Amino acid sequence: MMPFRISVPASSANLGPGFDSMGLALGLYIHLDVEDSDQPAFFAHGSTESEENHFIWNISEQVAKRYGVTLPPCKVQETSEIPLARGLGSSASAIVAGIELANQLGNLQLTDDQKLAFGTEIEGHPDNIAPALFGGLTISTMLEDDIPSAQLNDIELDLIAYIPKVELKTEVARDCLPDTYERNYAARASAMSNLIVAALYSKDYVLFGKMLENDLFHEPFRKELISNFDVIREKAKAFGAFGTALSGAGSTMLSFVPKGNGSTVKEKMVTQLEGYQVKLLEIDTKGVSVSQNR
């Protein structure tokens, strides 16, 4: 076996009114460095874990079992830049990493559709799985026998992430949402989602930012769980951001800034926030990738 590396990007789901359907791949990564070994070993975060106790390896074994193959012993070193429970799609990235590990070790030659279907089956929804697989902005949904998706890579914006120390479990953020929406309310919320997509495709980033901050599906109900929600949004807008939204369910927030202005806005925001990592991020346009290690 030639040593190889699997890299999977983080992702930001929802993007305001794109609730449970839109996801954006971000330039933070899980890396798996894989090499031949007589004995299987999985190194995560600097320590050795048995394969049966490691989430990514368990995913790989599920895929292998599904396709009737036995994975060869190997040494896997995991490193991750993606904070857990911050709304950056860490679980989806790990699932995609596990699927691709099985694909490579088992020579399964899985198609993109097969990877998306298996990842969605495990995660329960495709909004983070799709961008982790394909990169860029993805819009996806679930039909009875299909998971259609569309991709947009040509987004000319800088991104600034505000990552707090506090975690926010998805289950907690999900529980604060209403079970149903009144019809007229849902129609207005859906119109916001339609318009944000149209604004991105037409590169009307002023309109995109306006719609980003007018979500009706989830942010009005989750904002009370997010420290400094209004402060971050107002300060970022004052410093030149088009708009700011929760990343996924939170607790991270994400600002969209005119291309080339990201560093300036980031430095100004750093002075306004304590206890946050403020990061200037790229949009990942490749999704999961495999490269040879020399």
TrEMBL record:
Residues 55-136 form the GHMP kinase N-terminal domain. Keywords: Amino-acid biosynthesis, ATP-binding, Cytoplasm, Kinase, Nucleotide-binding, Threonine biosynthesis, Transferase. The keyword Cell inner membrane does not apply. Pathway: Amino-acid biosynthesis; L-threonine biosynthesis; L-threonine from L-aspartate: step 4/5. It is found in: Cytoplasm. Its main location: cytoplasm. GO terms for molecular function: homoserine kinase activity. Belongs to the GHMP kinase family. Homoserine kinase subfamily. This is Homoserine kinase. The lineage of its organism: Bacteria, Bacillati, Bacillota, Bacilli, Bacillales. The gene is thrB.
